[in-house]
Amino acid sequence: GRLPSIPRQKNGKRIALIGGGPASLTVARDLAPLGYQLDLYDSQPAGGGFMRSQIPSFRLPPEVLDEEVDYVLNMGIQSHFDTYVESLKSIIDKSYDAIFVGTGAPRGSDLDLPGRQECEKQIHVGIEWLGSVAFEHIQKVGKRVLVLGGGNTAMDCCRTARRLGGEDVKVVVRSEFARMKASPWEIEDAQEEDIPILNNHVPKEFVHEDGKLTGMRFDKVDVVYDSAGKRNLVPTGEELFFAADEVLIAIGQDNAFPWIERDLGIEFGKWDMPQVDKRTFQSSNPKVFFGGDAAFGPENIITAVAHGHQAAVSIDLFLSGKPTQQRPAPGVNLISQKMGVHEWSYDNLVTVDLREKVPHVDKVTALKDRKVEVELGFDVNAAYREAERCLNCDVQTVFDGAKCIECDGCTDICPTDCINFIDNADEDALRRTLRAPANDTTQELYVSEALVQTQRVMVKDENVCLHCGLCAERCPTGAWDMQRFLYSVTKAG
Ligand SMILES: Cc1cc2nc3c(=O)[nH]c(=O)nc-3n(C[C@H](O)[C@H](O)[C@H](O)COP(=O)(O)OP(=O)(O)OC[C@H]3O[C@@H](n4cnc5c(N)ncnc54)[C@H](O)[C@@H]3O)c2cc1C
Ligand code: SF4
Ligand code: SF4
């Protein structure tokens, strides 16, 4: 087994998970092995949340998702799919011992411009449209499609439209290219699929003939910064019309909790968001926990998983009668990597090799079927080359001042000048006087104890260290060691 076994004898505590995305699934994965009984409710027909309904199949194939989601659901989770929870009170009334809300940020922003109401059928909110495509309620799109917005959702919308029959698909963005929120690689993938991105266009109106959309009008703008550095979009006077059969609006995503009654002891604050403790994920109703996009707004899968682990710790503490603020420490470990005088158990050659490009399936095949996965992955040789570029961020330089004879050998050999033997001073002065000035104040400096011979200290700025190990190789006394750092997140139980 890849996963821990599930005890037959339950511990008698029942937990409701609302939403079946990565946050709730993580809570389920951590608490099921401890004997909790878990009921998961989701409005969709299957688990995975936005990973199933939003992330297109050509990026995340359903088979992969099914396998991973099933690992968790098969831990004895009682799932209630196709079940939209209309009222949190109705769940509380079922006498659960704790409730986890992992309902994401499911509301896509709309664009209330002239013509919006009249052309209801041809204008869609992007995330709703992607959900309908994923569940096959929508199987085709018009030939000419405009996608509004410059984030990753816009990129998924335009690439999906290309696969559903969109031949002339354009992305139209208010801001300039450099300020687009989409990841550069997502933009690149869209452009490779012949999707132009038109920046500095502010949508003005949906144009229609007797309720049938014919296109959209935009104001062209220049980006102008005023003397206070504030950015303004100033119309150039040029107005443009782009013909379209359908428009997808992908301009933002919000939380929405219409199903949570406001008299349940859960306080709501700014933007009508629940007040959730950033460390424990507990709300002001001690039985109700939040995590994933539902807690603090839209993020990503790995953040939802991280929230889920921490919420599971809190729920387990809470149901064991312990304070949720007193959390078990994470596991940390440092292990020397030294194998011989000049030999380390990791490849410490510093290279400047560029990233390998992930091969893609050919475009014609990809655009024929939205379910064909685009990225083919690396072959074995490319994967080895890519792995060799690892920067060994986990291998730390560990300094033992008591062994140092201050020969300066390490200072001479360090390729980035990050080792300094200097007189101690206050932090500002130290930062300025280092051989490579340490201007990034978010990175703490390492300052050793005073050294025996000269009372100087060894100061190191981790930001410039390459983890090459040359200092440890050069040191005649073993005062430097290269040690692998392992960190394991605190898990429930
Ligand atoms: C188009 C798009 C592409 C994305 N691509 C990526 C990506 O490539 N990588 C990445 O890391 N992240 C990506 N994200 C973000 C990622 O999907 C989310 O951050 C993540 O899924 C959040 O997980 P979650 O568990 O908080 O909730 P979600 O995954 O949003 O799941 C919440 C679930 O709760 C259900 N639900 C909501 N309200 C109720 C209710 N009242 N009753 C019952 N069920 C309810 C919803 O239907 C949904 O199934 C993308 C998001 C979008 C919109
Ligand atoms: S590991 Fe390399 S870069 Fe880092 S301090 Fe040692 S010699 Fe300098
Ligand atoms: S090489 Fe070793 S002994 Fe010499 S200064 Fe550096 S840490 Fe000290």
What's a concise summary of this model?
This protein has 493 residues and is of the alpha/beta class. The chain has helices spanning 22-31, 50-53, 62-73, 88-92, 126-134, 152-163, 184-192, 293-296, 301-319, 363-368, 380-388, 409-413, 427-433, 470-474; strands at residues 14-18, 37-41, 78-80, 98-101, 107-108, 123-125, 144-148, 168-172, 197-198, 201-209, 212-225, 231-243, 246-249, 253-254, 288-290, 331-336, 338-340, 343-344, 395-399, 419-422, 445-447, 457-461, 480-488.
Task: Give the SSE map.
Layout: E1 14-18, H1 22-31, E2 37-41, H2 50-53, H3 62-73, E3 78-80, H4 88-92, E4 98-101, E5 107-108, E6 123-125, H5 126-134, E7 144-148, H6 152-163, E8 168-172, H7 184-192, E9 197-198, E10 201-209, E11 212-225, E12 231-243, E13 246-249, E14 253-254, E15 288-290, H8 293-296, H9 301-319, E16 331-336, E17 338-340, E18 343-344, H10 363-368, H11 380-388, E19 395-399, H12 409-413, E20 419-422, H13 427-433, E21 445-447, E22 457-461, H14 470-474, E23 480-488
Parallel strand pairs: 1-2, 1-4, 2-3, 4-15, 6-13, 7-8, 7-13, 8-9
Antiparallel strand pairs: 5-14, 10-11, 11-12, 16-23, 17-18, 19-23, 20-22, 21-22
Helix pairs in contact: 1-9, 5-6, 6-7
This protein binds flavin-adenine dinucleotide (FAD) and iron/sulfur cluster (2 copies).
The site of flavin-adenine dinucleotide (FAD) has 38 residues, from helix 1, helix 2, helix 5, helix 6 and helix 8.
